[in-house]
Amino acid sequence: MQKIVVAGGLIGLGAVMIASYGYGGTKFALAALIGGVAGVSLYHAAFGFTGAWRRFVREGRGAGLRAQILLLALLVVLAYPLIAHGEIIGVKANGWVFPVGVASAIGATIFGFGMQLGGGCGSGTLFTVGGGSTRMVLTLTAFVAGSVLWTGTASAWQGLPRISGVSAIRELGTGMAIIVSLTALTALWILVSWRERRRCGDIERFTATESVLRGRWSLMLGAMALAAVVLATFAVLGRPWGVTSAFPLWGVKALDGLGVPIQAWNGWSDKAVARSVFDHSTSVMNFGVMLGALVAAGLAGRFAPTARLSARDVATAVVGGILMGYGARLAYGCNIGGLVGGIASGSLHGWWWLLWGWTGSMAGIWMRERIGMDPRPASGG
């Protein structure tokens, strides 16, 4: 069975690469392959934001958070020079620098809340779907629905206060931007470690990699692999790795196929609706992530979907997914495009996303306890 899963995943990834090549040439085919590497890395390292944030809040353990800080530090050191001086080596890399304001704060908060209910972040939803999680198929479907819902209401948020995007690379210069960003990340590392030691008495070490092909990977190896994914995306597509910008297209294609007059919604012309899902670089990367995770699950011998879902599983997956879809588009991206992509670009909006995404996540963790998804933690600590 597992060999069939691996073969199916590899054949599927090859098919996506061929299909995307027909629209975007070598760049799109490579984007699908990079997505496949991301899927393998995410699955083998179990590198998710949702669970790591929840574990730190509930148990005090911060290995997952420190791995995320390591990922961001690697990108600061490597991506900032690529953005500023990549043309020297023939790479035109443009960072994402988006506005900071009330709407994006609300969006990141909604997303953070939704990801705790839904059980996965942007990247986490994709790789767990590929890994065989039936519940996360519901979350992803609702994620897409929430993204489409946003397209019909996007104009309603445009009048809220905001400031133009701020780029540390542009304002401070590459060297100083690296120093400032690394200082902030170091402070976060110290804070997480201090809290963990105070609550648990020690610092959780990164586990060793068991097997590169069959997993599990250490979180450190996962961070390095995902940093390589982001840098490869910069080199091939000229921008950071993103996830959620493809979801509105997936949704409107599905609605159009069902006969819904989606052209009446905000911004969806006949041409836009007719666009192939393989004619979108983020879309083919997402397919690659799911297929890469499918291959990884097969190699690890852990591909075992189950249809046993409770009513609460279904309800939280749907509600959480809708909130994530809507919030991500409002906040200029999810944890990958908004947080990782923002900080990797030297943009203030990445830190803004982190602040409000964490706030929403805290509320979501509280809600999980209230509705019985998680047992109440023991008092003290």
Provide keyphrases for this structure:
single chain, 69% helix, 381 residues
State the share of residues found in helices, binned by percent: 55-70%
> Are there runs of 5+ residues with pLDDT below 50, and where?
none
* Overall 3D shape: globular
Number-wise, the strands total 2
Major β-sheet annotation: 2 strands, antiparallel
Q: Separation of termini? A: 45 Å
- What is the number of helices? 15
- Report the average pLDDT across residues: 93
How much of the sequence lies in strands comes to under 5%
Radius of gyration: 20 Å
Summed up, the domain count is 1
Q: Kindly name the structural category.
A: mainly alpha
Overview of the molecule:
With 381 residues, this protein is mostly helical. It has one domain. The protein contains 15 helices and 2 strands. The protein has helices at 2-45, 49-59, 63-85, 102-118, 122-130, 134-151, 168-172, 174-200, 219-237, 247-257, 270-274, 281-300, 311-330, 335-344, 348-370; strands at 100-101, 162-163. A two-stranded antiparallel ribbon has the order 1-2. Helix 3 runs antiparallel to helix 8 (174-200). The longest helix is centred in the first third of the chain and has 44 residues, at 2-45. It starts with a helix and ends in an 11-residue tail after the last helix.
